[in-house]
Amino acid sequence: IHHDVRDMPALMTASDLALTAGGTTAFELCAVGVPSAMFVYGDDQARVLATLEGIVAEAGVATDAIGAEASAQAALKWAAKLSDPDNFDLRREYSDKMKSVTDGNGARRAARIILDHLSGYEM
């Protein structure tokens, strides 16, 4: 378990598997292709997981103690399956699917939209 991480890209790149809530971290993990099991901890995360259906493993809804226990069990089962040395191809499949979600140009597109919007204003 990691918290207060100072260099998230380095941690993600060095990881073989990840378990996380389905927030914006989900898309960062997609960018580096780390096979991930994700759980829902808040309503906004349900939409992220719906977007990534079939691309990440869904570990359930962890908004209460029962859901958190079920999510932990689902994630452990998934991690055991993917960490098996015989499942290298399955890990690669998850990684490739995740990498297909992002293209690394999101910030550039957002900046272009903002600049285009501002170009109509007098400064």
Concise account of the structure shown:
The chain is mainly α and 123 residues long.
Brief descriptors of the model:
mainly alpha; single chain; globular; 6 helices; 123 residues
Description:
The termini are far apart. It is globular, with a radius of gyration of 17 Å. The chain has six helices and three strands; from the N terminus they run H-E-H-E-H-E-H-H-H. Helix 2 (25-32) packs across helix 5 (88-99). The chain has 123 residues and is mainly alpha-helical. The longest helix is centred in the middle third of the chain and has 19 residues, at 65-83. A three-stranded parallel β-sheet has the order 1-2-3, sandwiched between helices. It has helices spanning 8-13, 25-32, 43-51, 65-83, 88-99, 106-118; strands at residues 18-21, 36-40, 57-61.
Topology:
Layout: H1 8-13, E1 18-21, H2 25-32, E2 36-40, H3 43-51, E3 57-61, H4 65-83, H5 88-99, H6 106-118
Parallel strand pairs: 1-2, 2-3
Helix pairs in contact: 2-5
The spatial strand order of the largest sheet comes to 1-2-3
Global outline = globular
Strand content: 5-15%
| Total beta strand runs | 3
Low-confidence stretches: none
The helix-and-strand class reads mainly alpha
- Compute the gyration radius: what is it? 17 Å
Average pLDDT figure = 88
Total helical elements: 6
Report the helical percentage.
40-55%
Largest sheet: 3 strands, parallel
* Distance between the first and last residues' Cα: 48 Å
The helix-strand sequence is: HEHEHEHHH
